Amino acid sequence: MLDNLFLLIGITLMYSTPLIFGGLGGMVSERSGVVNIGIEGMMTVGAATGVSVAYFTGNPWFGFLCAGLAGGLIALLHAIASITFKADQTISGIAINLMGSGISLFMCRLLFDGATHTPAVERKIPKLFGDTRITGVAKNLNVDLTVIFALVLAVVLWFVFYKTKWGLRIRAVGEHPAAADTLGINVALTRYVCVVISGVLAGFGGASVTLAIISQFSPTAISGQGFIALAAVIFGKWTPHGVYGACLLFGFAQALTIILGGGNFAVPSQILSMLPYVLTIIILILFVGRSVAPKASGVAYEKGAR
Amino acid sequence: MDIKKDYAVQMRAITKKFGSFTALDQVDIDIKKGSIHAILGENGAGKSTLMNVLYGLYQAEEGEIYLEGEKVNIKNPNIAISHGIGMVHQHFMLVDNFTVTQNIILGNEVVSGAGVLNMTKAHEQIKDIVKKYGLEVDPDAKIEDISVGMQQRVEILKALYRGAEVLILDEPTAVLTPQEISELIKIMHNLAKDGKTIIIITHKLKEIKESADVCTIIRRGKYIDTVTVSEVSEEDLAEMMVGHAVKLVVDKTEADPKEVIFEIKDLVVQNERKLDAVKNLNLKIRKGEIVGIAGIDGNGQKELIEAITCLTKSKSGTIKINGKEIQNTTPRNVINHKVATIHEDRQKRGLVLNFTVAENMIIENYGKEPYSKKGFLNKKAMYENAKGLIKDYDIRPDNCEGLLVRGLSGGNQQKVIIAREVTNEPDLLIAVQPTRGLDVGAIEYVHKTLIRERDKGKAILLVSFELDEVMNVSDTVAVIYDGTIVETFKQGTVDENTIGLLMAGGAADGKNS
Amino acid sequence: MEKIVNLLKKQITSTIIAILCGFIVVAILLTLTGYSPFEAFGILFNGIFSKPKYISQVIIKATPIILTGISVAFAFKVGLFNIGAEGQYIMGTIAATVAGILFDFPPVLQIPVVVLSGVCAGGIYGAIVGFLKAKYGIHEVITSIMLNWIAFYLGNFVVNTQRFHQPDSTGTYIINESGFTMFLYGWKRSEEGKAFLMEHPVLLDVILKTDVNFGIVFAIIVAVAVAILLKKTTKGYELRSVGFNKDAAEFAGIDVKKNILHAMLIAGAVAGLAGALTITGMSPHKISTMGTFENYGFNGMSVALIAGSSPIGCIFAGLLFAGLLYGGGSLQSAIGAPSEIINIMIGTIVFFVALTKIVPVLADKLVKRGEKHAR
Fold it and tell me: What's the protein's topology in the membrane (chain C) (predicted)?
């Protein structure tokens, strides 16, 4: 029993971690007023970059950092399009998704002799209590360090958003850019920073799949996590704690399907796999209903228009 | 006048053009330090434009600005703020879901250490300012939860918190109740006593008499005069503001009302926050009369209109047109019962900006012959209809039926709505703030149209926050206060003061209820 | 001058500029990674145009994404973002497969039954999204994403049920031949047909070696029908008014919720049709266990965006998209350049489509500057 419980917790945390990075990234961007539907693409780029760098340098940490950098770089494209050129943010985000997976596989093929997946890295990101020492029941609680990072990140973002001047400014820019502008806050710069940060976080999220959960990149390494993260942003009502909770819930539902699937239940695994998604819709109907996005989200800011 | 150090603001020969339209033509103004200086002018006279130039929101084509004798170049609001100029816009610049304190400190936060907000200290600083000038606010309340008057104080606090020495208030009383107005005037005097310079932009004579020391009058973009308020009468000010040429009294004959066609009984409507906003409201309108609802914004007008048009549910009571109840049905049903509405928000509710003029003209009738034939749109009929209306209502530019309505001026957009609603041949025509944001010529046109429709025997409900408009156009004036009609008068039987008092919740006999 | 400006204001100009930018960016990328862009583009175009068979393949591949593109474009016009075309497409394939296996009517009945099953399944699936938005105000993007995954697993579930699973395979049984919509399917396999085709190598190439089918005809009909629906009918007027300004539509007495529901129903049905036609018109005429999304719906989003949400435009954008994908497939074997370069190209094109919305604005500014100079 305890075994199963620990397993459940372990798998929940494992599955939710990439979503948390992606979701928090999406939240930061949307809070500043830029819809970021390109999280999926940014995660893919991070996943590919992280594991490639780690493979060649032998250092997973360096790989993780580079994943963030790569995610940030591709996010910069989204920022240029949606802030400077006031392009349609949804279209730009979709383009980022297309380019993200294209670039990742393209680089992968170039670097690894035409293969669509990278070789496995020897050193993954270590687990919380080292790799070998913990055995037995508690083994399942020996989670990847990325799990801890995700938690720390959520706490830090919560602190930044609600306790610091930067958080106050970001929120103001996302809600009422004209008001922020009249008070001397640089709306465009704030949004640029937030979009790039969102890319960095999404990149970390991608790397937390390929450097912690599995140990290589393949075309299916990132398949839909970015979109689930996006849903978690809405579900979590654009707050760090809400997004964290929403991702945890997804992870939990995923873990549940695995645990239940392992037993001798009569339910086919495919039906069980639907559980997280069905559950989300039901929860939305029952409890959440209309969630209110930041007011200026998705709207390019025109100076002087009010 | 020379440029002097004891003048907070001196502007010289300011000219500002918007395209081919000259909004300001060589305007001068001198504002003494520590005074309350009113800028008086009609809607569209250029007074707000002048102050927007001072605040750096607009750049003048010509002219110079001096602050305390020093020439300055104000390219944007940040520069204005750094020179100690603060502005409270007519439409507040507040973040709705932030607290009062958060709004005040935004962009100029009190921090301890690396960017961490020190809210305790911020509270103290704000409290000091609050105490000094008597600006009572709850620092922890959210903007969306406080009254408009309170929000205005937050705007003033924002400016003072940034060390404003010159405070520009753009139409500060437009949205306030009389009590709030008198408190605002008190605050203005407190500020002036402390050496701050106050500039108020307004077209309300009474308030200028009550609050200002000096008044500069602007008419159609031109400087007219600057007077010491105590030395002139309201009548003098009015004459200078309007000039002799324009007389804003609407030409109309006595109404000849027939039977009651529209009746509201004991109507209760809740607002978005589930509080009763319309409380047991009763109203009757007869054929051939214009009933004007006078009241300050936020006394239930919005909810009343939404209930009549079935955009929102009525909690109880009945709304009858031609004897049939229409409450709690659908907007479509209301239209079918021959009620037409000119909504106050023409871009949100009145028009589909990305539709052509012709398409907008049939938005209520697209499903009927001749516009729809077996489920298909009849483009020819649609365009012919539009062509006719464009001609009849003089909508510019000519032959604009195929243009997107987005490209039309505000006045012409309003004409599109009016043309459409009037041709629906309604039994009841509702006009909510029908002249908001329009220039003088367009306003006159709208008023004439309303009266013409009245003379054709229609019932007309006019809702406006401009008391002058209600008084000039209506045959019957109904005063709304706190969600209910407190008193109804035949036009001409009462003066503005009595109605003003009722609008503020006072009783007609002069006692507060 | 005025002519240039007017030209710049046309949407097609923006789109062409975006496509050119896509080629330029990819050319730069290829050069940087040591490939000759000219050679690569040569192979690309050869892979599309050099043989009738190739052209035929492109058209076949384009059919489903033209339809999912129309589905997305249509929803866009009503102000909805149909990210759920993927799930609706999958539902279409599932329903068509199930119906195609369960029933075996004569073709004249079988084909409509199979195709309509897919259309209905997609339509209902879309309507769920519309219903949840209209009734509970839940954002269509979030429900669509969830429903995509539910459809994905439902497909895998159906594949693994005893009734439909073909033993020793990863897929279901093939649907009954009476449901096939290939062009001259029976004839081309008859002795007579084979003999005829042997004498006409071009036709042999096109008809026998590819799954030439009626799908593209359906796609064009749907594109025209949706365009007419939007532009010429009263219903289209309603839908467009809801899409542009739902507050004004509501105030004018138009039932916004009903229209959202209808719009999603139609969008879903079109995506479902795409799924059904894939099953009836293309081998392997069955569904298989999916490891990841097959992207027919997601590609539809790109098609719709490149087409500027015009249903007719979707035909051309779909052909372009399919052409690039199909032609690009041979890049890897021919010069060793990763064929994913095509995905980058499509992404870049979509990106520039987002950017080039600014071209008409710039054109306006150009005019204004011109006027100033004239003074």
Answer: Multi-pass membrane protein
Q: Which of B309, B336, B377 sits opposite C251 (nearest CB)?
A: B309
Instruction: Give domain B7-242's CATH architecture.
Output: 3-Layer(aba) Sandwich (3.40)
Q: Establish if C155 belongs to a structural domain.
A: yes
- Whether C246 and C356 map to the same domain: the answer is no
Where in chain B are the domains? 7-242, 250-338+428-483, 349-425
Selection from C20, C25, C35, C41 nearest residue C324 by Cα: C41
CA distance A74 to A203: 10
Element (H, E) at B292: strand B290-294
- Residue A302 maps to a domain: no
Q: Does A133 touch chain B (CB under 8 A)?
A: no
Residues of A in Cβ contact (< 8 Å) with C145: 224, 227-228, 230-231
CA distance B116 to chain A (A): 4
The DSSP code for C93 is H
CATH of the domain at A269: 1.10.3470
Query: How many Å separate Cα B381 from the centre of its chain?
Result: 37
Cβ contact (<8 Å) for A231 and C292?
Answer: no
Q: pLDDT band at A114, cuts 50/70/90?
A: confident
**Total count of domains within chain C:** 2
- Out of C233, C251, C255, name the one closest to residue B377 (CB): C233
| Ramachandran bin of B433, using left for φ above 0, alpha for ψ from -120 to 50, beta for the remaining angles | left
CB contact set of B81 (below 8 Å; sequence gap of 6+): A183, A184, B162, B164
Residue A262 lies in a domain: yes
Give the burial class of A256: count Cβ atoms within 10 A of its Cβ; 0-12 exposed, 13-18 middle, 19 or more buried.
Answer: middle
Asked if the structure places residue C237 within a domain, the reply is yes
Which residue is it, tokens 């709306």?
A: A187
Which residue of chain A has the CA closest to B112?
A164
Neighboring chains of C (3 or more beta-carbon pairs < 8 A) = A, B
Per DSSP, what are the bridge partners of residue C172?
A: C165
Tokens of B477: 């004036």
Range of the domain at C5: 1-35+337-375
Q: Is residue A259 part of a domain?
A: yes
Its domain, for residue A255, covers 2-288
Among C146, C163, C298, C342, the residue to mutate for chain A (most A Cβ within 10 A)? C146
Pick the CATH number of B250-338+428-483 from 3.40.190.10, 3.40.50.300, 3.40.190.150, 3.40.50.1450: 3.40.50.300
Task: Give me Rg for the CA atoms of chain B.
Answer: 25
pLDDT tens-place string over residues C205-264: 777 777 888 899 999 999 999 999 999 999 999 999 999 999 999 999 999 999 999 999
User: Which of B450, B446, B424, B428 is closest to B437 using CA atoms?
Assistant: B446
- Per the prediction, chain C carries an average pLDDT of 90
ipTM of the complex: 0.89
Residue A296's pLDDT is what? 82
Q: Please list the helix, strand and coil fractions of chain C in percent, rounded to the nearest 5, in that order.
A: 75, 0, 20
Residue C373: count other Cβ atoms within 10 Å of its Cβ. 7
Residue of A nearest to C157 (CA): A270
Q: pLDDT (tens digit, 9 = 90+) per residue, A15-35? A: 999 999 999 999 999 999 999
From the first residue on, what is the mean pLDDT of each consecutive set of 10 residues in chain B (513 residues)? Answer: 87 86 89 93 80 89 92 89 90 90 91 88 90 86 85 92 92 75 88 92 81 90 91 80 58 84 95 87 95 87 94 94 94 95 90 94 91 92 94 87 87 90 92 80 84 93 86 92 92 81 65 39
Q: Is C49 a member of any domain?
A: no
* ω into A126 cis (within 30 of 0): no
Burial of B510 (0-12, 13-18, 19+ CB in 10 A): exposed
- Structural domain includes residue C238: yes
